[in-house]
Amino acid sequence: MSKSPENNNDISKKNGSREIADLFSDALFDRKGINGHYTPADNYRPFTIFGHENDNDRLSVLPASTTGSLSSITTTSVASSEPDRGLEPGGGGGDNGDEKLTRGDDFRYRTEEWWQTTLQVSIPFLIAGIGTIGAGIILGRVEHWKVFIHISELFILVPALLGLKGNLDMCLASRLSTQANLGNMNSAREIVQMVIGNIALVQVQATVAAFIVAVFAIIVGAAMNGNFEFDHAMLLIASSMFTATSSCFVLDFVLVAVILLSSRFRMNPDNLATPLAASIGDVVSISLLSFIASLLFENLETHIWVTFVVVAGYFILLPFWIYIVFRNKYTRPVLSTGWVPVLSALFISGLGGLVLDAAVGVYDGFVVFQPIINGIGGNLVSVQASKISTMLHQSSILGIIPPHANIFELPWRALFHGVTYAKSARILILMSIPGQVLFIFVADYIHMSSSTIGLPFIFSYLTVSLIQIMSLLYIAHIIIHAMWKWKIDPDNSAIPYLTALGDLLGSSLLLIAFLFLTTIGHDYGEGQEAIGPPTADSQLSPDIFGTY
Question: SS in 3 state form for 252-269?
């Protein structure tokens, strides 16, 4: 009996898939194991599976960033301290650092030396550190403003609004970085579609998330203070929505420029985009929140209608942004699936806001160092999360864990030596130590007009910051692989949880450090006075840098 053409096509497709799977396992495993069992090759390098030239089949299980044939999965970059080697003897190097296997054009991969990762991450990391210092200094000044004294719920908003850069902007950076590494940002038309769709998506998420976090702050504030004031509630909602949408809009264009430039100059956007986004994100967010909140508060009794206009304006724009997102093929799936991580992360960041609200009136200087420890931890784990996510997109299919990876690994293997991502994790941990020391000394000198940090503070701060960073990197390894296994795209879901956990862990651990310093009799800033603290009754000006 002759087979129908359809059956012949099905058989050929299955044979082609089986052939690719066999090549995949040959490259990943050393077949010289004992008793014929596969053993992982020690010199494993991530690579790419390419389909046949005429294979245009689309796999429905692929995420949005990799929808298409297997040929759409391209190379990956990981930190490596060893020279590039082909997977077969005599494997030659390709142009521009790409190496190809001698077995036809089935595979291609690219490795990244440790010094390349360090150099590419360190520069934006230092710039991001300057941003977090600026955010801490600004918050240290505006905490004495009349609006922050009379409406203390604003302190609950601060970690959540700062976390939006992780919940929204860093997710945008991760999505576009993955697309750039997959080679999908070569066409000007495709780039414009991706950029417009992603910016509209972030505006939708920022509008809704800002409204929800403001309502959360209002409810918690009413429960803690025992009273509810409607005009204060409207000020919180208007300030939150204005801050979130405006800061995200500015950061989105910065991110797009960074990713396009890094791709053009053959640098890994995973190393550059997220730290640079954070470098101005904290300063912009706190500056906008302080400015709009103080401006509305000064005119609250006579012009409360302005708050209604602001809130109504954003809700009128919301359907327009939704329409753009729904018509865009790159962002349409995220519109329906990307809400759970964003809203869950906002709730976690809100808990960090409660810690800040409780500590701000007790420990002098807490608000100066809280954005630093939270920002640095969130920046570094976002780099690692983006790199792991990109590698999974490029070496496997959503729902299938690559043979070289496991969801659960021992902390030593995940962070220092044992798995592919441990090299970049080790670099990030070592980079954080001198960076944190530099940032806290600069922030202390600016805040106190002299250096007041002693060894007890340095020891306490470094201890809690290392605990935070290592915990976040290990959690990132687990949840990204778990999401991949459960067919959840980590580009849309992982970073919000990680940055929110970074805020909660950073604030809580920093509070423990301040408690420890108090216990041993070495309070921060004891006997010193911060420069220029205004009184509660001083005439307020919307100059966010402390001029009244």
Answer: HHHHHHHHHHHHHCCCCH
Q: Is residue 543's pLDDT more than 50?
A: no
Q: What pLDDT was estimated at residue 485?
A: 92
Longest Cα–Cα distance in the chain: 95
Number of Cβ within a 10 Å radius of residue 75: 22
From residue 241, alpha-carbon distances to 229, 249, 321, 527 in Å are 19, 12, 15, 40
Residue whose C-alpha is closest to residue 17's, from 53, 51, 60: 51
259 or 511: which leads in pLDDT: 511
Per-residue 3-state assignment (H helix, E strand, C coil) for 124-185:
HHHHHHHHHHHHHHHHHHHCCCHHHHHCCCHHHHHHHHHHHHHHHHHHHHHHHHHHHHCCCC
- β-sheet bridge partners, residue 112: 79
pLDDT above 70: residue 539: no
Enter the pTM of the model.
Answer: 0.67
- Residue pair 161/307 in contact (Cβ under 8 Å)? The answer is no
Residue type, 391: M
- Angle 170-181/269-298 helices, nearest 10 degrees? 160
Residue 318, token pair as written in the block? 């919301």
Among 83-97, 185-199, 477-491, which stretch is predicted with the lowest mean pLDDT? 83-97
> Minimal CA–CA distance to 325: which of 492, 201, 191, 189?
201
User: What three-state secondary structure class fits 313?
Assistant: helix
Q: Which of 264, 469, 494, 472 is nearest to 393 (CA)?
A: 494
What is the per-residue pLDDT for 277? 66
Integer Rg of the chain from CA: 25
Alpha-carbon distance of 108 to 94, in angstroms, equals 9
Q: Is 176 exposed, middle or buried (0-12, 13-18, 19+ CB in 10 A)?
A: buried
What are 363-372's pLDDT values in tens digits?
Answer: 888 988 988 8
Strand 79-80, strand 29-30: pairing: unpaired
**Three-state DSSP string of 147-161:** HHHHCCCHHHHHHHH
Nearest of 89, 111, 113 to residue 98 by alpha carbon: 111
> How far apart are the C-alpha atoms of 459 and 454, rounded to whole Å?
9
Would you say 123 and 268 are in contact if contact means Cβ atoms under 8 Å apart? no
Express each pLDDT in 141-156 by its tens digit.
888 888 888 888 888 8
Of 111 and 6, which is predicted with more confidence? 111
Distance, C-alpha 522 to centroid of its chain: 34
**Has residue 305 got a pLDDT over 50?**
yes
Sign of CA dihedral 489, 494, 497, 503: negative
